[in-house]
Amino acid sequence: MxxxxxxxFNFSGGENAAPIxxxxxxxxxxxxxxxxxxxxxxxxxxxxxxxQLNHADVHCTTRQEGLDLMDIRAALKxxxxxxxxxxxxxxxxxxxxxxxxxxxxxxxxxxxxxxxxKISQPVQxxxxxxxxxxxxxVHNIVVVEEGAELNILGGCATSQHSNDAAHLGITEYYVxxxxxxxxxxxxxWGDSTTVRPRSAGxxxxxxxxxxxxxxxxxxxxxxxxxxxxxxxxxxxxxxNSVIVTPTGSYVDSGSAIHLNAPHTRGEIISRTLxxxxxxxxxxxIGASATPVKGHLECKxxxxxxxxxxxxxxxxxxxxxxxxxxxxxxxxxxxxxIEYLMARGLDEDEATSTIVRGFLNVDIMGLPAPLKKAMDxxxxxxxxxxxx
Length: 387
Prior knowledge:
The protein has one domain. It contains six helices and 20 strands. The chain has helices at about 30-35, 70-80, 95-105, 335-340, 345-360, 370-380, and strands spanning about 50-55, 55-60, 65-70, 110-115, 125-130, 135-145, 150-160, 165-175, 180-190, 195-205, 210-215, 220-225, 225-230, 235-245, 250-260, 265-275, 280-285, 290-300, 305-315, 320-330. A ten-stranded mixed β-sheet has the order 2-1-5-7-9-11-14-16-18-20, with no helix packed on it. Strands 3, 4, 6, 8, 10, 12, 13, 15, 17 and 19 form a ten-stranded mixed β-sheet that branches. β1 and β2 (about 55-60) form a beta hairpin.
């Protein structure tokens, strides 16, 4: 992971920004930026909503019994510093990113599904940056207690006119026995934005963690490598990602699953497409218990230039593990294009059809309106570049 000069970004000021009670009153251009990050401010079918604007919590509502949702700073005060969760999975001195987030906490959220509570409607969380040279350092904590279920839709974006911004995001996930967490993250950054998430999670016996990540827009530089430890028997973790890098974008992204208990299962599936940018696609599954199963699949497509570097890793020193991986980087086969052209499509239409199939998000189990929005974005991709 590369270092960055954090001193050029402003990580203070505006902490007391006025609340936004009604998100539909946001400027239309901001609403449009959020829609492309999966956040529809007109959607009332949510169990809770949280919005962070630069350094301020400007919106936080809950509509579900058994759901805690609040600014992380408020949670630290209310729950005596959250000693069982706060900085327990990540070391604040790990690197310059964690140190900055520890020393200059700008916000973030604490969300918890209480024991046995199954929350059917998603919690909507939004991290939004406006202005030039703005830095945002947040810390999120997600807790799914025993037997509970939680679905989070996280959207991160910069405003249309934001320039040279930085987002540093710390996230810690805790899935207790028999709990289930589905976490979908969609990014819509600007082409000069620096993004550095640091994430880790633990899943206890019988727990399920599913992570979906979608990046279809330009970003200056993004580096992300979340780690999940399956510490309880029968725990399951899945990472699905769809990433597109146009010219000028640099993405170093991956995920790691550690199978630490018997009968745990892990799967990492990624689809990457470059139309001129750079993608380093990492994946790691390690097994320290038996019997366990893990599968890693990373496939990259180069359309119109760019670079894809796939780095799949499997690691174990135990008998009886079942770990596998598939990795492929290539181009669209000419015979596939010719097949579709023979059926009436021109070359661009044929290429776009193949790209849409390659970047299929069906596996993510997204809500129908969100899937429709993502499919619409993917349909606008073409051989010459991405939106």
